[in-house]
Design goal:
It contains eight helices and six strands; from the N terminus they run E-H-H-H-E-H-E-H-E-H-E-H-E-H. The chain is α/β, with parallel strands linked by helices and 207 residues long. It has a single domain, classed as Rossmann fold (3-Layer(aba) Sandwich). The protein has a six-stranded parallel sheet with strand order 3-2-1-4-5-6, with helices on both faces. Strand 4, helix 6 and strand 5 form a beta-alpha-beta unit. The longest helix is centred in the first third of the chain and has 14 residues. It is globular. The chain starts with 10 loop residues before the first strand and ends with a helix. The relative contact order is 0.21. Keywords: Hydrolase.
């Protein structure tokens, strides 16, 4: 594999959906993701990557899922299954602990929170692409939740838009090992230039 190399002038870290509901004990979705997330130390690895990116002066962008609000989807003609599930669970409910950033991932001053995505892609119907382009970002390092939905959809869309994408395989998680395998071994290799470990990324950013 070509040695990993990233520079702050054109590389950004994209952190996807670090909500309490996803990655904190007591979160609504944590019980579904806990086994896989704990097996690969997803949350500590996400913290390590974020810390390394900040130390390397990379710009940090947060791609956050739409937080549930009363009345969401009620007058929509069509609601995708993944949206219907979030609606019924009241996932990431606005104004509640579950809809807040986990404490370790609260954006620092100057870091950018893109407008919330309604389905899975951090790019679809948001300003993420605009924000990246405004800051001359061409290469992305992606971490967060969930591998086969928001991570994969964001990575696919990024490739369509011409970004070079790296996924940190042990800084993402999913509901099962099978879903992780499908996302990381079958689907995303078609779109991500590199799928690497936290150790790899941290070492590359320290150079």
């Amino acid at each position: 594999m070509t040695p990993l190399s990233y520079t702050p002038d054109n590389t950004g870290l994209v952190v996807v959906d670090p909500y309490n509901d996803f990655i904190s004990e007591g979160g609504k979705i944590w019980p579904r993701i806990k086994d896989v997330a704990e097996a690969n130390n997803c949350v500590p690895h996400m913290q390590q990557v974020l810390t390394a990116a900040r130390a390397a002066k990379l710009r940090v962008f947060f791609a956050m899922h739409h937080r549930y609000r009363e009345g969401d989807y009620e007058n929509w003609k069509f609601v995708a299954p993944i949206q219907r599930a979030a609606w019924h669970r009241r996932s990431f409910e606005c104004g509640t602990w579950g809809g807040e950033f986990r404490a370790e991932f609260v954006p620092a001053p100057g870091e950018i929170v893109a407008s919330e995505h309604w389905c899975s892609s951090g790019f679809a119907n948001t300003d993420l692409d605009l924000q990246l382009k405004r800051h001359s970002i061409q290469r992305l390092i992606v971490i967060g939740l969930v591998a086969h939905t928001c991570i994969e959809a964001t990575v696919r869309f990024a490739a369509e838009l011409g970004y070079d994408v790296t996924v940190v395989r042990d800084a993402v998680a999913d509901y099962s090992d099978e879903m992780m395998h499908a996302a990381l071994e079958i689907n995303m290799p078609n779109y991500a230039s590199a799928i690497v470990t936290t150790h790899d990324i941290v070492a590359a950013l320290a150079v």
